[in-house]
Known about the structure:
The protein is built from 11 helices and no strands. The chain has helices at residues 5-23, 30-37, 41-47, 53-56, 59-72, 79-90, 92-96, 98-109, 112-135, 140-163, 169-184.
Amino acid sequence: MPRSGAEARRRLQQAALELYRERGFDQTTTAEIAARAGVNERTFFRHFPDKREVLFSGEAELRAALEQAVAAAPDGLPVLDVLLHAFREVKHLPESNRPFAEPRLEVIAATPALRERELAKAAAITEAVAAALRKRGVAERQAVLAAQAGWAAFHEAIAAWIADSSRSLDDYLLQAFDDLRALTGR
C-alpha cells in the first residue's frame, strides 16, 4: 500500500495508463485500476472523480498557472510575446510529467471519447487565457484568437518534444512561436 496521497495518486495514474494501453480505455474499470495500484476503489475516487480524469488531472493547475503567468508578463509586450512568456513559465508542468505524457497521448488518440474530453479541456484553458489577456486590455476577438493560436503552438511544441527529446521543450516553444510569427508576418 502506498504511504502518501501523492504516491497513491502516482500509482493510480501509472496503473490506469498500463491498463488503458493493454486493454483499451473503455474496457478498463476503476476497480481494476485500483487493484493494479494496490489500493481500494474508494482510494481511487478520493483522487479522481472518474477514470477519464486520471489522464486530465493537471488541467486545473495548468489553467491557473497560465492565468497567473499572463497577468505577470511584463507590461508593453506584444500579445504573442505575452503568451510565449506565459507558456515558458508553465513548461515545468509537462516537463515534470514527461514519463506520463507520451503514453497519455497514445491513449487519448485511440479513444474518441477522450479526444472529445481533451478538446473540452483545451477550450477551458484557452478561454481562461483569453480572459487573462482581456484583463490586460486585449480586445475580445483578438484575445480569443491569440489564446487559441498560443494553445495550438504550445500543444505543437509539446508533441514535437515528446517525439524528439534531443531538444528542450523551451527550444520547441521558441520555434513554435517563431513559426506562428512567420505565419502572421510579424
